[in-house]
Specification:
Blueprint: E1 6-7, E2 10-11, H1 24-41, H2 44-51, H3 56-73, H4 77-84, H5 86-103, H6 110-138, H7 144-172, H8 175-182, H9 189-198, E3 200-201, H10 212-238, H11 240-244, H12 247-275, H13 278-298, H14 303-334, H15 341-369, H16 372-384, H17 387-391, E4 412-413
Helix pairs in contact: 1-5, 1-6, 1-7, 1-8, 1-9, 2-3, 3-6, 3-15, 4-5, 5-6, 5-8, 5-9, 6-7, 6-15, 7-8, 7-12, 7-14, 10-14, 10-15, 10-16, 12-14, 13-14, 13-16, 14-15, 15-16
Length: 415
């Protein structure tokens, strides 16, 4: 039996599924609840603004405000955890994400919707940073890839199910049903508090040899790699209807993109633990560029050829989109010592959200002045520009030895 950690007196076998690690079920429950509410409202809150008479600028601003406040919040989350503890901060994050969903029932006035989006952004920023950092602190570093994969699956399943279904439910059943689904993060407050009690803070006895500037510099590589692929994913998600033309094809493309991303993000974790994340970085960067080129070419084709090229291209981007999410998070965590896991999580999440927003803005702006074909080719070039970073083999990274988890007497609860 290999000792992977000692939590509440339990010795965890190397053969134990990573999701059964003490504390992981609570983190996964919190994540499922939080991302269910987020995924339900992501496409529907802008529709509610349009229902109230907002123009295209106002409709586009809804998720823009959401992501702006998400990114503004994320850098401050590690300090909040150190001051108030994991459980309370994670519970507040779920509260801020879920409660405003019910506020949409009051009015479809754009000013109210934007204010609610800002509050939801605060909660989402907290949820994203604490979730990935909590996973990193709960498992042995040698199994972080698998843990990140399971965590990614808890994020992806609500997106696959609820993002495509949200607009249909709003139109066919009613907006109130979707707003109720958006409040599901409130149910995540309980597992958030339970998870906080399970997270063990292990004293990091490694010498402090890296300045804050060096820590951020070491995280620049995984953040830029992530930005390259999320730029591609954000563009395809935002403009799926414009690229596909037919509604059924746009829906099929979104399902294929999110489904492939979910599968890839889940399975890539175990492979990263076995062969290392660097093995898969450059093939996935190439796959991103190939997928965008295929989608661009599909726009000059007609009928079945156009549909086939679009779906194959979306599949390529989806596989890279999910896989690189996993690998870059594992790479970020391996680039810092344990004391900086919170910082690594914050920087990674900023890269993810900034890339998603940049993909929408950049591709939209180029398409407005030229065409979607040219816009997608520019996006492909930007994604491929990160290839040298994927080929770099870093040396001298801080050790992720599991010896930091070996003795119960060294463990101090954060609560």
């Amino acid at each position: 039996m290999s000792r992977l950690g000692d939590n509440a007196g339990m010795v965890i076998s190397a053969s134990t599924p990573v999701w059964r690690t003490p504390g992981m079920p609570a983190v996964l429950g919190m994540t499922l609840a939080g991302f269910s509410g987020f995924s339900a409202l992501m496409p529907v809150a802008p529709l509610w603004a349009a229902h109230g008479g907002a123009d295209s600028v106002g409709v586009g601003a809804v998720n823009g405000v959401l992501m702006l406040f998400t990114v503004l919040t994320q850098p401050f989350v590690p300090a909040a955890v150190r001051r108030w503890g994991w459980g309370p901060v994670m519970a507040v994050g779920n509260l801020l994400l879920g409660l405003p969903a019910l506020g949409h029932l009051l009015s479809d006035d754009l000013r109210l919707i934007l204010a609610l989006a800002a509050v939801r952004g605060l909660g989402f920023g907290i949820l994203t940073v604490t979730g990935s950092a909590a996973v990193a602190n709960l498992v042995d570093p040698r199994r972080q890839g698998a843990a990140v994969g399971v965590y990614g699956l808890a994020i992806a399943v609500p997106q696959v199910l609820l993002m495509p279904a949200g607009p249909w439910l709003a139109e066919e059943v009613g907006f109130g049903v979707v707003f109720a689904a958006g409040a599901v993060p409130l149910l995540g407050c309980i597992p958030a508090l339970l998870a906080g009690r399970s997270i063990i803070v292990v004293p990091d006895d490694s010498p402090v040899t890296h300045s804050r500037r060096q820590v951020y510099r070491s995280l620049l590589r995984p953040m830029l790699l992530l930005l390259g692929v999320t730029l591609a994913g954000g563009a395809l998600i935002t403009f799926s209807s414009d690229l596909a033309g037919a509604a059924w094809l746009a829906t099929s493309a979104l399902l294929l993109l999110t489904g492939a991303a979910a599968l890839s993000r889940w399975r890539m974790g175990a492979w990263a633990d076995r062969w290392g994340p660097g093995t898969f970085l450059w093939p996935l960067v190439l796959l991103t560029g190939l997928g965008l080129v295929l989608v661009a070419v599909s726009l000059s084709q007609e009928g079945g050829t156009a549909a086939a090229l679009l779906l194959v291209g979306v599949l390529c981007v989806g596989l890279a989109y999910g896989g690189l999410q996993n690998l870059t998070l594992v790479l970020a965590l391996s680039s810092v010592s344990r004391r900086d896991y919170g910082t690594a999580s914050a920087v990674w999440n900023v890269g993810f959200d900034a890339g998603t927003g940049l993909g929408s803005v950049l591709v939209g702006a180029i398409a407005a002045g030229a065409s979607f074909t040219e816009a997608l080719l520019v996006a492909a070039a930007i994604s491929l520009a990160t290839l040298p970073l994927a080929l770099v083999r870093r040396r001298g990274q801080p050790s992720r030895s599991s010896s930091t988890l070996s003795a119960k007497s060294d463990m101090v609860s954060s609560e």
